[in-house]
Design a protein that fits this description.
Length: 69
């Protein structure tokens, strides 16, 4: 159950990145500074997705190895 929650939060980061990219496209002409801020948020959200995914897989492997012993 806990792994499902972690996976949900992983994909929430992808949703946040997609929303940030949408906001970049809408604010690009009007407010360039705000668009750059949302570009940063999109990059950060993608980074966090891969970081959380790697960390979750490491913990899954660790528990699997401990259960074998």
């Amino acid at each position: 159950m806990q792994n499902k929650i972690y996976q949900l939060f992983e994909y929430a980061y992808i949703v946040m990145a997609a929303f940030s990219i949408y906001l970049v496209t809408t604010h690009w002409e009007d407010n360039r500074a705000k668009a750059y801020m949302f570009i940063f948020f999109a990059i950060l959200a993608v980074f966090m997705f891969f970081f959380k995914r790697k960390f979750r897989k490491m913990t899954q492997q660790r528990t699997k190895d401990q259960n074998k012993k």
